[in-house]
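Students often ask why inverse folding is considered easier than folding. One informal answer: many sequences map to the same fold, so there is more than one right answer. In these notes we will look at a single instance of the problem. The structure comes first.
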């Protein structure tokens, strides 16, 4: 008899990455494929819901691998305050409010290259956060961000 309530995630990040993943970490799959099967391109575990404090480090990290980031889309209801733009390393990054849910952030490079990242809620336990991030970066992942968080053991405070 199978236990449908148990998490289905079986893959882990490599040990060196697994130990280094802590709040403030972004994990991005930079594999390019001709057919995009995966739902998410990576994951981010911010330390807080203060987007002005958290987003510059993410943008800096992504810029190193992806090139200049021009826009970020996220759900305004999920963050303490949402500016319309931030200046990161002398570049203006537009911040757009989209009803994507508090579990997803959309990043745009240039004019049309979009990347979707799972957002691990700041109070998530380290093991659950690491498992969620490992699942999100799988190239064959077809699971939406919210379900990944549920499957990996994250529970909203008070649930």
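Output (designed amino acids):
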């Amino acid at each position: 008899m199978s236990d449908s309530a148990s998490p289905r995630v079986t893959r882990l990040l490599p040990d060196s990455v697994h130990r280094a993943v802590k709040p403030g970490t972004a994990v991005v799959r930079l594999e390019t494929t001709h057919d995009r099967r995966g739902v998410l391109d990576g994951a981010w575990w911010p330390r807080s819901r203060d987007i002005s404090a958290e987003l510059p480090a993410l943008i800096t990290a992504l810029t190193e691998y992806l090139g200049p980031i021009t826009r970020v889309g996220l759900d305004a209801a999920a963050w303490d305050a949402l500016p319309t733009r931030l200046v990161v390393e002398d570049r203006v990054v537009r911040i757009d409010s989209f009803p994507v849910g508090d579990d997803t952030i959309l990043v745009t490079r240039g004019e049309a290259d979009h990347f979707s990242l799972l957002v691990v809620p700041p109070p998530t336990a380290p093991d659950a956060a690491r498992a969620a991030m490992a699942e999100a970066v799988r190239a064959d992942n077809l699971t939406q961000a919210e379900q990944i968080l549920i499957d990996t053991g994250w529970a909203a405070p008070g649930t």
